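re: that chain from earlier
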Amino acid sequence: MSTFISLAPQARTLFYLQSASRLLLFWFPVILGAGFAGAFLWAPAPALSIMFGVLFVRVMLSLWWPHLSWRRWGWLERDEELLIARGVLFRSITAIPVTRVQHIDVRQGPLEQWLGLARVYVHTASGLGADGVIPGLLRPVAEGLRDRLVRTQADGDDGV
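^ sequence. v structure.
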């Protein structure tokens, strides 16, 4: 069996920046709000202790999880299919038959543009949105994958 191709090293930085923004913009306000509400409505000492404990766990996860997630992402292009592997606790490997591909998008958010990365969205005939997403690819790699999948899909049978 072939080896999965890892995401670009810059993707680890992207995952850390995304994790830090979630921590600062969502988790800090939610945990602090719940902690102070608990301190006023319940008992200050236990509520603040729980608040600091939960905050500590969230900070540790934000420091640890992005690296683990980056290590577990991978993709493999075969003649008949595209395989996408991901997941830290629950491993998932998605196989997308090339003959079922309808279109492929290459997208970049602001952080991805800054880091020179892109995401590839693979849409199939299901019509339920993207059936496969590969984040953290260097833009030329993402565009090359898109071009190869489109070319392979165009050369093959459309499955109808």
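DSSP finds four helices and seven strands in the chain.
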